[in-house]
Target: Kinase
Amino acid sequence: MAKKEQEKVTAMPMVPMGYCMLDTQVAGHTFEATNAAAVGLLQDAGEGRVFKPLGKPECGVRELNFYESLAAAIATQAGASPPAANNLNLNGTAGGGEGHSETDLSLLADLAAHVPRYYGQLKLVVNQREHTFIKLEDLTHGMARPCVMDVKIGRRTWDPLSSAHKREIEEQKYVVCKQNLGLCLPGFQVYQPDEQQPGQSVLIRQGRDYGKSLDVAGFHKALAQFFNVNCQASDVLLREVLCQLRSIRAWFKRQRLLHFYASSLLICYDFEQLQRLAKGGSSSKQLSNGYHPDPALPTTANQWIRVRCIDFAHIFPAEDAQPDHNYMFGLQSLIDIVETMLHR
Ligand SMILES: Nc1ncnc2c1ncn2[C@@H]1O[C@H](COP(=O)(O)OP(=O)(O)OP(=O)(O)O)[C@@H](O)[C@H]1O
Ligand SMILES: O=P(O)(O)O[C@@H]1[C@H](O)[C@H](O)[C@@H](OP(=O)(O)O)[C@H](OP(=O)(O)O)[C@H]1O
Model:
């Protein structure tokens, strides 16, 4: 085992009462059976929140500062006292307290629509050790059969403060997909109709090793599998995903404030709703406009389909106030792939 600070543990991780491991976690740092120091995401009992451990100090500080900055920008927009805005420190390095213009604050506040809601930080004891967690909206909340895909965005996944070693490691992973598409696939889970037992579904999960084995055609196939493209109602799903991706792209086109390295888009949808829609037999156009005759179905697609930006451990102020071309290249590739699937 390569990592330091490892301790043998034999049982499941010891987590506080009322919490459990996030069962829909598809990528990122996870609990490890043989390393008590490794901590993954937690969820609470039915409250619709997830708890992300802060991880490596520099990454944790940057992610926490990012969410706090967004919260401060929202508060300022809502008319809270100006000092909140002056505390913005997106760099996570020493200093902080840099001032931000009204435009910057408004941009940050607009970004909040595209990231999970933030509910502050808290300390929890896991495996007899205290860890700091950030409390976030669970993007799969309310989904009976959540399909979740983590797509890491950008050709470059190392940040400006990375060591030469870290840069080398990052450049050697997911090479084909990263270089050609500016995307990589660290993990996903999808429910699919069970071909052996009609009416039943099976859960398929793929992790980083699968993602690392993909070439461009394989990446396209993985997305087609994730979006259940053979399902009758998949065009509703693809249209809504496209709509949310374009909205994120519109934000990135406007901003010259931040550069997102090694950040992901988390795409979540409920397979149960997709199936019910397919069985409902109504035209896709009607459904994507938010109307459905069955009152048991959510009225709008964005209630069971969510695309959000996550993982801000490597977010940095934009160099020379440049747009985030690295992120936008990957995001555009993803949009192109989804458009191609829709028009197949
Ligand atoms: N708000 C959320 N709601 C639901 N699931 C989430 C949320 N945030 C993260 N996850 C789950 O946890 C996984 C890991 O999240 P994230 O990328 O933030 O962690 P990380 O450990 O920083 O990852 P990395 O190793 O790439 O740095 C995601 O792939 C997703 O499955
Ligand atoms: O895709 P993989 O192969 O899972 O690689 C991991 C991924 O690049 C994470 O973003 C990174 O965490 P950070 O973002 O926190 O650097 C982690 O570094 P780590 O092993 O040093 O934690 C890598 O192992």
In short: Residues 57-77 form the longest helix (21 residues). The pocket of D-MYO-inositol-1,4,5-triphosphate (ligand 2) is lined by residues 55-56, 59, 173, 186, 208, 262, 313-314 (CB under 6 Å).
